[in-house]
């Protein structure tokens, strides 16, 4: 039962931090854009936003993986950390 609660808390925290990171990347992009580039070139802005979000996600993925690993110290057959291998693989491919 404790494992399900920990996993639920990890999921909620990951979603909230992801949304905050996306908002922060958007604010960063808006603050540092050129004044002549107000409502133009949406595709490059989206690509830069996704790149900043991916960089933020890679930095925050290591503590998230460590936190999930600590929640499975007592159980060697823990299935929670198995998904992190695929997450790291996907992150490095993108």
The percentage of residues in β strands lies in under 5%
Q: How would you spell out the order of helices and strands? A: HHH
Gyration radius, in Å: 17 Å
Number of helices, counting only DSSP H or I runs of 4 residues or more: 3
Q: What about the largest sheet?
A: none
Please give the share of residues in helix.
Answer: over 70%
Give the termini distance in whole angstroms. 35 Å
Low-confidence stretches: none
Number of strand elements:
0
Label the overall shape: elongated
Average pLDDT taken over every residue: 83
Alpha-beta content class: mainly alpha
Provide the descriptors you would attach to this structure in a database record.
single chain; 94 residues; mainly alpha
What does this structure look like?
By secondary structure, the chain is mainly alpha-helical. It contains three helices and no strands. The longest helix has 30 residues.
Lay out the secondary structure.
Layout: H1 2-31, H2 42-71, H3 82-93
Helix pairs in contact: 1-2
Short note summarizing the structure:
By secondary structure, the protein is mainly alpha-helical.
């Amino acid at each position: 039962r404790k494992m399900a609660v920990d996993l639920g808390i990890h999921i909620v925290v990951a979603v909230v931090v992801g949304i905050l990171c996306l908002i922060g990347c958007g604010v960063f992009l808006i603050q540092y854009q050129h004044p002549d580039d107000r409502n133009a070139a949406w595709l490059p802005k989206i690509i830069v936003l996704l790149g900043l979000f991916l960089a933020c996600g890679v930095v925050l993925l290591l503590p998230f993986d460590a936190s999930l690993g600590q929640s499975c110290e007592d159980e060697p057959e823990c299935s929670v950390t198995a998904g992190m291998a695929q997450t790291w693989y996907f992150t490095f491919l993108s």
